[in-house]
Records
---
Amino acid sequence: MSIKNIRLEVMQFLENKVEGFMEEYLIPVETIWQPSDFLPNSEDENFFEEVKELREIAKDLPYDFWVTLVGDTITEEALPTYESWLMDVDGVGQVENNPWSKWVRQWTGEENRHGDLLNKYLYLSGRVNMREVEITTQHLIADGFDIGTGRDPYKNFVYTSFQELATYISHNRVSQIAKQYGDKKLSKICKMIAGDEMRHHHAYSEFVSQIFKVDPSEMLLAFNYMMKQKIVMPAQFLRESGEKISSAFLNFSDSAQRIGVYTAADYVDIMQKLIEKWEIDKLSGLSDEAEKARDYLMKLPARMAKVSERLVIPAESTIFKWVEPAMIR
């Protein structure tokens, strides 16, 4: 039997658990928070006063902070690409509407709130050029992405396990910085989004744990493959108006590293957490190839930590069209 067919069998075997996953890791639409819960109410007669206060508090946040917040928002807003990618994964079932496709749709519904909330906050803040932000978002969706997983569910679940934890770290750190600058509203917004991301991380990492129970060697080889090729961020093709895909994502990443929102050390830490979560050191009955992969994985975080320590981040901020310096003063 081919590797693809074995993966399909495993996905079908796990289908009867997906309803339980949804109950445990997703929140019903009627009870989960919505973006309007955290923004000035446009129906309220005090709306303009609340917006004025929001804009006044936002003035104190620094340039790299705004670049990072905009980049995070654009990443969240490119959700159509992520949903269409996951719906095409082997075993998900775009046409059959099986439990996996229900998971992807409901997960998408929760994630969609994040970009919606951040976009509205940015608009009300008056600190950024919203048209430039919107152009970049449209480019990112139109350009698509390639995260190196193909249609392989094992690789995709490794990616989402990693990525959801990375977005938790980013939103949580932004929340902490906003709080330091006295922006309690933005701090709460980002903290709530971070909470969703952590919950989703637990879900995807549990999917991988379940696969390890029935197909440990192939699951380990998929994990090894993703760590070897490195996890690329979903906004890797970021670009501004009039530009081609080039260094915009790297410049955005530099801003995030300069203010400590998401760093190379965080990348290594996530890798270590996944190794521990999936108890790679305790797996048994592995093939020879998988045993070699385990040896490689167990040593990889320490090796990458040494590399990350040598990274030099530019001291000067790159000026983006999204955030004009004059708007931050």
Note: The chain has a mean pLDDT of 94.
---
Amino acid sequence: MDVSFLGGPYPQRGVGVVAPFDFALDRELWRWVPAEVSLHLTRTPFVPVEVSLDLARLVSEHETLGDAVRALNAVAPEIVAYACTSGSFVGGVAGERAMCEAMTRAGAIPSLTTSGALLDALAELGARRIALVTPYTVSVTQSLEEYLAEAGITVTDRAFMGLTRHIWKVPYRDVADMARRAVRGHADALFISCTNLPTYDVIPQLEAELRIPVISANQVTMWAALRRLGTRAVGPYQRLIDQAARRDPVLPEEQEGWA
């Protein structure tokens, strides 16, 4: 059968993604991606360590990042994103910059990290005081606060779960409950940390309820990577992505009733 009339496949622009070995939310990342862009994911090697500062350091070693980026080079992405919040804030602001430099050297392409993208997103929103939600232990949460403080960001309140495994299994209801606990005083925005924590559908609902921008680790990673490509992420009713949501964060009536 002659299929030449189809005219495809159409050219795809590539975003390389380096994720920790336990990352389980590939499908969530894809939800922010427009049709003309493909994600090419690779994972860091397995290490028998629970979610902790030790694990964050292990999955962000420069040699590990270099190997991952060189593997991605085979499919020629235009940019590489390291999709792990703790792995990219554990070394502080200087450590995050060094990670980007190591990835760029390995692939000769622009590189970014989740924690670097977080700072860019906060600057885009004009947010200097934020509430914080994490699934982490107290020590990992404190390390994130130290990273933010180094960048001039004040954490007004926080809520964390103390998890060391299976973070991707946390339901939206628990994420929303943590958000409500974290936003107690005045905050310019709420950040939901960890690329393994599901957030896509909960963001617009929380923004409508809390009346502040709500951003998440996977969201800022995809937003920053796609912006570097000169295109836009897909996130209806998400203030970081949707200009209309910044003007009017209230959801349409047909979306009310979520809890």
Note: The first strand starts at residue 13 and ends at 19.
